[in-house]
């Protein structure tokens, strides 16, 4: 098999948000290893607050992780000078944020053209390319609109055009279709698909959208700052249990997703009756089981604690309305 090079790699990534408040610091990322190969599309899925945006910002060099390093196209970002970092980012990676982050004083066309202008491309050429991209995203007619005059979905499409104009090798995107209606969302996804298949662009994107996750070759499931599992293209965001592969990292750490923890009867002590390569069999130490059976009879909550969505008979782990994770009660 042909050796693929890594476009993005990080080891032991930690991030702590320091807080003076009494409830203390928030550990948002707890030792994450990420590898994305050139031309690969990887999704990050996980409930609200699990650390997805924090991860994306650390990987893109927008925020310095508390520990661990990030390599972009073979260069370790923390070792670069400010100018080197800017150059590397400009020619390698583009971002699409959760909220579109357009420059408020520039119209749509100039927002899109601006990254090329930064690279020294002449205005006429940069604008022509910007217009072409806006056309492809169904925004050709709105190119003179100012950001404040555009709807959320339109702003997002401008942001996407802006991210694509430099022909990056890697796109980091935080909920790129979050603000879009289903039809536009599909159009954006088709454009991503073309870039991915025909131009070998790599994607690392955060999503709650099942089509977006299905577009990726694999999805990483993030919970409380740790990757708990990986899924293939058959991932079904509303029921992750069918495609889940648990991850044991280099340090031997495995984190069980909450629903699996419930299925095995909750926390406790486990014996390993026979150790064999490629397979691990855990058996609960029996006195513990009696104890736990008596104490905990957990079931999935009937309604979402955040938005009061009624789950009815469904076994979903994530609220389809607001994306919050479903607690056990
Ligand atoms: N600036 C900040 N200061 C302190 N804590 C923060 C800050 N930003 C995020 N956090 C906390 O870090 C954790 C991870 O937040 P993050 O924004 O990465 O989550 P997320 O997975 O992107 O969530 P969502 O799906 O809601 O966008 C959360 O507990 C959040 O409250
Ligand atoms: Mg986020």
What does this structure look like?
- The strands form 3 sheets. A 7-stranded mixed sheet has the order 6-7-8-3-9-10-11, with helices on both faces. The chain has a 4-stranded antiparallel sheet with strand order 2-1-4-5, with helices on one face. The chain has a two-stranded antiparallel ribbon with strand order 12-13.
- It is 29% helix and 21% strand.
- It has a domain at 6-221: 3-Layer(aba) Sandwich (Rossmann fold), CATH 3.40.50.
- Strand 9 (218-223) and strand 10 form a beta hairpin.
- The chain is of the alpha/beta class.
- Magnesium ion is lined by residues 52-53, 98, 174.
Task: Reconstruct the topology from this structure.
Blueprint: E1 6-17, E2 26-37, E3 41-45, H1 52-59, E4 67-72, E5 75-76, H2 82-92, E6 93-96, H3 108-118, H4 123-136, H5 152-164, E7 170-174, H6 182-199, E8 202-206, H7 210-215, E9 218-223, E10 226-231, E11 245-246, H8 258-263, E12 270-271, E13 283-284, H9 286-295
Parallel strand pairs: 3-8, 3-9, 6-7, 7-8
Antiparallel strand pairs: 1-2, 1-4, 4-5, 9-10, 10-11, 12-13
The chain binds adenosine-5'-triphosphate and magnesium ion.
Magnesium ion (MG) binds at residues 52-53, 98, 174.
């Amino acid at each position: 098999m042909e050796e693929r090079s890594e476009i993005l790699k990080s080891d032991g990534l930690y991030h702590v948000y320091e807080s003076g408040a009494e409830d203390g610091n928030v550990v948002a990322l707890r030792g994450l290893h990420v590898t994305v190969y050139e031309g690969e599309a990887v999704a990050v899925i996980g409930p609200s607050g699990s650390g997805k945006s924090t991860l994306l910002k650390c990987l893109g060099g927008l925020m310095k992780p508390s520990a661990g390093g990030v390599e972009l196209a073979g260069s370790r970002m923390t070792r670069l000078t400010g100018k080197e970092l800017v150059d590397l980012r400009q020619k390698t990676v583009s971002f699409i944020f959760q909220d579109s982050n357009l420059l408020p004083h520039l119209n749509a066309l100039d927002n899109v053209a601006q990254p090329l202008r930064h690279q020294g491309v002449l205005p006429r050429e940069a604008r022509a390319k910007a217009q072409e991209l806006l056309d492809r995203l169904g925004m050709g007619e709105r190119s003179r609109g100012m950001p404040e005059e555009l709807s959320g979905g339109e702003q997002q499409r401008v942001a996407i055009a802006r991210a694509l104009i430099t022909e990056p090798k890697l796109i980091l995107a935080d909920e790129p279709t979050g603000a879009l209606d289903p039809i536009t969302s599909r159009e954006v996804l088709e454009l991503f698909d073309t870039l991915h298949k025909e131009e070998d662009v790599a994607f690392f994107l955060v999503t709650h959208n099942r089509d977006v996750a299905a577009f990726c070759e694999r999805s990483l499931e993030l919970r409380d700052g740790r990757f708990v599992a990986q899924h293939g293209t058959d991932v079904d965001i509303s029921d992750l249990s069918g495609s889940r592969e648990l991850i044991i990292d280099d340090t031997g750490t495995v984190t069980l997703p909450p629903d699996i923890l419930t299925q095995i009867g909750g926390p406790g002590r486990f014996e390993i009756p026979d150790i064999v390569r490629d397979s691990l069999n855990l058996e609960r130490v029996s006195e513990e089981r009696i104890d736990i059976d008596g104490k905990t009879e957990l079931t999935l909550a009937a309604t979402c604690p955040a938005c009061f969505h009624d789950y009815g008979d469904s076994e979903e782990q994530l609220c389809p309305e607001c994306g919050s994770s479903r607690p056990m009660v």
